[in-house]
Amino acid sequence: MDNGVELPLVSGGAFDLHxxxxxxxxxxxxxxxxxxxxxxxxxxxxxxxxxxxxxAEALSAGDTLGFPVIxxxxxxxxxxxxxxxxxxxxxETDHPALASALTRVADDRLARAREMVDKLNGLGIxxxxxxxxxxxxxxxxxxxxxxxxxxxxxxxxxxxTDDFFREYLVSGAPAYVAHxxxxxxxxxxLTLAAGGVPVLAHPGRMLADTDLLPLLVSWGLxxxxxxxxxxxxxxxxxxxxxxxxxxxxxxxxxDFHGDPNGSRLGDGSVNFNAVEELALRATGNAGTRFLQGEx
Length: 295
Ligand code: AMP
Ligand code: MN
Ligand code: MN
Ligand code: MN
Prior knowledge:
Elements: E1 15-19, H1 30-38, E2 43-46, H2 55-65, E3 69-79, E4 82-89, H3 96-122, H4 129-135, H5 143-152, H6 161-169, E5 182-183, H7 184-193, E6 197-200, H8 212-219, E7 223-227, H9 233-246, E8 249-252, H10 272-281, H11 285-291
Parallel strand pairs: 1-2, 2-3, 3-5, 6-7, 7-8
Antiparallel strand pairs: 3-4, 4-6
Bound molecules: adenosine monophosphate (AMP) and manganese (II) ion (MN) (3 copies).
Adenosine monophosphate binds next to helix 5 and helix 6.
């Protein structure tokens, strides 16, 4: 029964440590995401792809609501032929090397998106660059914005999104252009240099056929995303074992993008202990500030 006593967060709670806003390829603006999350979970980490530009709005919305918002980021990185995603929590945004790496990646993404639109045009699909820009007016652009522009230009139907993606936009498909991303080792090093904690994102989609994990650990990996919508029970059990073996924080999250057909906010949530462990491992001020409840 509710007796009016507020329970301390350390007793549990549902923290979704993997979400995207319109600062990358999510559909909700950072403040809308926070507002939505407030009615569903105990706290979130905003982990936009390669961008921290949603932080200011998300953190201020969190402050207004008294709702915990953890500053994060999801790096897209190159590990040889593999694309590996590294989550970074509690980084200091004003770190010069981090800021300049993110600017470089954003500039490349813009040139790459233009190239993909040129390729689509060459394949007879008359998508206007302006239509893509309307979907991605900010600093970040990726393939989902191209697909959304195709839909808004009535060149494909919403229901054909997945097929179109597979036919034209996956690696090896005719309109695909690779990213110029930073290396996985660099992403881990930058995260540590900026005082944050690097975490391997959705290992179920990343670890196959590689001996990546021991390497990541030797570079300073701090956590492993164990709870994730597409991870089954056997996978989760395996990851819990690896977390123990390598002394990694067990994290989790939904990878929510605001898309009603995608994962739901709160799927893969973890309790406050995971958040606290991440904050304690952070060497910069962001972790301490979070634990003291001030930003
Ligand atoms: P990019 O940043 O351009 O490499 O695009 C990657 C993003 O596209 C991911 O973060 C997902 O949000 C989305 N995505 C990746 N694969 C697919 C797919 N097969 N169908 C729809 N969306 C996808
Ligand atoms: Mn995405
Ligand atoms: Mn990812
Ligand atoms: Mn993600």
